[in-house]
Design goal:
Elements lengths: L4 H43 L4 H8 L9 H7 L48 E2 L21 H21 L6 E2 L1 H4 L3 E4 L4 E4 L6 H11 L11 H6 L4 E2 L5 H10 L1 E6 L2 H13 L6 H13 L5 H6 L5 H9 L14 H4 L9 E4 L3 H11 L23 H8 L4 H10 L1 H6 L8
Parallel strand pairs: 4-6, 6-7
Antiparallel strand pairs: 1-2, 3-4, 3-5
Helix pairs in contact: 10-12, 12-16
């Protein structure tokens, strides 16, 4: 059929109008998609887990922290050997001393605490560091028994405060408050917040918190499984923002730390030298597969028999086959001591004296004493400086140096010396 000029003109006009409408529709659609992408980027930026400069300068160990000369001298023989950058996966909540942590590669059914997706919906603005109110010492005034413990405590608090003040780089960062307080246990009756550091007396501290909460009559009658799997204690991130803020400002905050090398060796002995239904198949198998050149089929199958040198290779690897774990994570990342001003800093090396002094300060029952028994593997010799030396002798000097570099902030913040180089 032959179209006359009028029909051709009308056809062209209709096609042109249709094309114009299609172009306008596509333009609107593209603008909407672009706006959506930009909005999502802003949301992702706003909800990213970051603690600003403090995360970079205090808790982020992927880069070397700038240290003035006075701290370099204090650090002793810990020069930067220029080791590879360490890429650390975020570890999430664990029940503690023997709980299965949620590492970045762990899909195990043994996970004991589900992450809270609501915690990261928007950034939380806090005024960091939180002002620390003085300890109430009315309950120990006039008691000469605690003079030495009190003087020691003041030195520790002052040392950490000055370190964070000078080198912490705190500038009111936007942080995920829920992440920062996720390792802090709450005891409301005596208005106490305890930050859990595994392998630094945390099992017995949880027993004490249960007694203080009225959940048990004696710390000596609480089993290991009840402590770590009973879910009797609340962590601070289980409260809403108002509850968290109130407790951070009004409660007494305590953390107990330990010499980093002793804590590391203690964790290795506990998790890899004894039967363990979680750490062997999850961590052990991956470590043996990557760091043992000639591994037996049995070792690859069950993950038992990890050597300390292999474990250190995993810890210092920039591309770990499995994620980090709270039992060997640094205190600077677990408890954020330059973001949360702890009222009381105890040390494992003086555990009983520090703990019993703290219990007096918070007005605990007079008959409550910190338990002194070994929580697990009671027949094993406690991990001491002498034991640590036996494990470190299998490492090269460069490996020992890199291991100390890995924990150098914990050494500096809590005034530990490098004894084993």
């Amino acid at each position: 059929m032959v179209m006359n000029p009028k029909q051709v003109f009308l056809s062209v006009l209709l096609f042109g109008a249709a094309g114009l409408l299609l172009f306008m529709y596509l333009q609107v659609w593209i603008e909407e998609q672009h706006s959506g992408r930009m909005e999502r980027k802003r949301e992702q930026k706003g909800t990213s887990v970051t603690t600003g400069r403090i995360q970079e300068q205090i808790t982020n160990q992927n880069s070397e922290v700038h240290m003035p000369e006075d701290l370099k001298e204090k650090r002793g023989n810990l020069p930067n050997l220029g080791g590879p950058a360490r890429v650390l996966r975020k570890s999430s909540h664990s029940q503690g001393e023997d709980g299965a942590p949620q590492s970045s590669t762990d899909n195990s059914k043994e996970m004991h605490q589900v992450a809270k997706p609501q915690a990261f919906q928007k950034p939380i603005e806090m005024n960091w560091p939180l002002v620390t109110r003085p300890l109430n010492k009315s309950s120990v005034q006039g008691d000469n028994k605690w003079k030495k413990a009190d003087a020691t405590q003041e030195r520790r608090r002052s040392f950490l405060h000055e370190f964070c003040k000078k080198y912490g780089g705190v500038n009111d960062p936007k942080s995920s408050l829920f992440h920062i307080v996720s390792r802090i246990y709450v005891e409301d009756k005596h208005r106490t917040l305890y930050c859990e550091v595994p392998k630094a007396g945390c099992s017995n501290w949880k027993r004490v918190l249960m007694v203080l909460n009225g959940l048990a009559s004696s710390a000596y009658n609480i089993s290991h499984d009840t402590v770590h799997y009973g879910k009797h204690l609340k962590t601070l991130d289980s409260f809403d923002l108002k509850g968290i803020d109130m407790r951070l400002k009004a409660y007494t905050k305590v953390v107990f730390v330990r010499d980093p090398m002793e804590r590391l060796v203690s964790a290795f002995r506990d998790k890899f030298e004894h039967p363990n239904s979680y750490y062997h198949p999850v961590f052990g198998k991956a470590i043996i597969k990557k760091y043992r050149p000639i591994a037996s089929a049995e070792a690859l199958n069950n993950g038992s028999g990890v050597k300390f040198k292999e474990f250190v290779s995993y810890l210092l690897d920039a591309h770990r086959p499995v994620g980090m774990d709270i039992h060997w994570e640094r205190v600077s990342k677990l408890c954020h001591p330059c973001l949360i001003n702890y009222n009381f800093i105890g040390k494992f090396e003086t555990l009983e004296e520090d703990a019993n002094y703290f219990l007096q300060l918070i007005g605990a029952p007079k008959d409550l004493k910190f338990p002194n028994f070994k929580d697990r593997h009671s027949s094993d010799k406690r991990t001491s400086a002498q034991v640590v030396r036996q494990y470190l002798k299998d490492l090269t000097r460069a490996e020992r140096q890199r291991l100390y570099d890995f924990y150098h902030l914990d050494y500096l913040m809590f005034n530990y010396t490098t004894l084993h180089l």
